[in-house]
Design a protein that fits this description.
Structural class: mainly alpha
Order of helices and strands: HHHHHHH
Number of strands: 0
Strand content: under 5%
CATH class of the largest domain: Mainly Alpha
Number of helices: 7
Length: about 150
């Protein structure tokens, strides 16, 4: 994944795509900072997690910009999200995620809300970087409250 980012950075430089250059450099810096903090080279999954965090940060910022009516920044951040999304695996639809969660319920067979950790442990590897885990947590809580 890091090699892909490097190649894309070179291609963006050749194409004089300033926005893409800036976004890729920010991601590469975040990856490098994480590697320094962990004192190890990151795997592709860990790099994908960093890219996912970058997308989430931008989405949160867009919500704040909407409150302040900063359409120029909203447009800019949406472009950045589009660039970052190119590196993420295809997102799951709500229906696909609910199916995975229901499968986890049949495997774990939870008895109470206290079994939420077991369910999350089951679904996390399947949903991580492909679906909003906050949304997944809410769906699981709703299902557990019906037990």
């Amino acid at each position: 994944m890091k090699e892909k980012l490097q190649k894309e950075l070179i291609d963006a430089m050749k194409a004089h795509d300033k926005k893409k250059i800036d976004v890729i450099k920010l991601v590469k810096a975040a990856v490098q900072n994480e590697e320094i903090n962990l004192k190890k080279e990151l795997s592709d999954d860990e790099v994908l997690s960093i890219i996912t965090k970058q997308v989430k940060m931008r989405k949160d910022a867009i919500l704040e910009f909407e409150k302040a009516s900063r359409n120029d920044l909203i447009e800019s951040y949406n472009e950045e999200i589009d660039i970052l999304s190119e590196y993420l695996p295809k997102s799951l639809t709500d229906e696909e995620a609910i199916k995975i969660i229901e499968d986890a319920f049949s495997v774990v067979n939870p008895q109470a809300i206290s079994d939420m950790g077991k369910i999350m442990k089951e679904v996390s590897p399947k949903l991580k970087n492909r679906f909003d885990m906050g949304k997944a947590s809410k769906i699981i809580k709703d299902k557990l409250s019906q037990i």
